[in-house]
Amino acid sequence: MSNSFKELEDLKSVSVGIDNDEKGYIDKQCPSEECEFLFKVNNDDWLNIFKDEAVWCPMCRHEAPSDQWFTIAQIEHAQKETLTVVEGLLGKAFSNMTRNFNQGQSKNSFVSISMKYKGSNSRTFTIPAKAAEAMELDIKCEKCHSRFSVLGSAFFCPACGHNSVTQTFSDSLRKIKAKIDNIDVVRKALTTASSKDEAELTCRSLQETCISDGVVAFQKLCEGLYEAYGKAPFNAFQRLEQGSELWEKAIKKGYADWLTSDQITKLNILFQKRHLLAHNEGIVDEKYITKSGDSVYKVGQRIVVSPNDIESLLAILKKLSEGLIEGCGVV
Ligand SMILES: [Zn+2]
Ligand SMILES: [Zn+2]
Predict the structure, then answer these.
(1) Domain range holding 78?
(2) What is the distance in A from the centroid of ligand 1 to the CA of 38?
(3) Which of 21, 113, 182, 208 is deepest in the core (most CB within 10 A)?
């Protein structure tokens, strides 16, 4: 057997490299079939901080050993490269064999047979998998300091599984902003694709969900931050007054320390609107009027959520959360 065939026979595995992107990040993908979330991790951190035993998906927190996070594209690329290398080695082996055969032909034999091999001349080395385009949102875990990046949002650190309440909160605010900023695009697209009526229904619903998104995100942020001080009563942070009192006791500061009274009034109306939407289909009742002090509506009317409402909600929650995060000493 020629040396080239030996080379093939000895081939146990083909290594295919993976390129970093321009920021020094490598592509990873959640191996859970339900999720397949694509993200990137800083290559230095992948080598130094990440553990072999467990890596977590930033989106669904699926947990798996570190060798299971190759992307589908990387695996397909590696399969193609392996085939190329095997083909290349086969080609090399056959052309060597042909040459040896032809050289071995005796001059004085009666019939001269020579061989020609027209096989592939493909390479016998691999080309690394290219990195996908860099992602926009760079995150550094507040607990283990590993760096990773995602498109859209992430809930968990892939290196330690930590769920950052502040990260989740800022992601939620960005989501609300994206919804409200794109409402006209959605309306136009739907008007063309289906009907004006459906466009209106969808957009109104999209706008209304922004309120509950904001309230729930704020509640989760408060619950997470408050853990360091004790256990808050169930849903306490859905109620502004009760929430503020809890913070007064915990960190000696309440909502009035960060917001003007107009902002507190507005925020209270928005919290009450969320309550109405969640529990009364948005139809105004006596309780709403008493609790919100909103004089715009009479009992039996349906509340309206305007883009202005959402803008105010975002601005107020941002200010309030910055104060709270600083007050709790969370960086
Ligand atoms: Zn996942
Ligand atoms: Zn971490």
Answers:
(1) 1-105+116-163
(2) 8
(3) 208
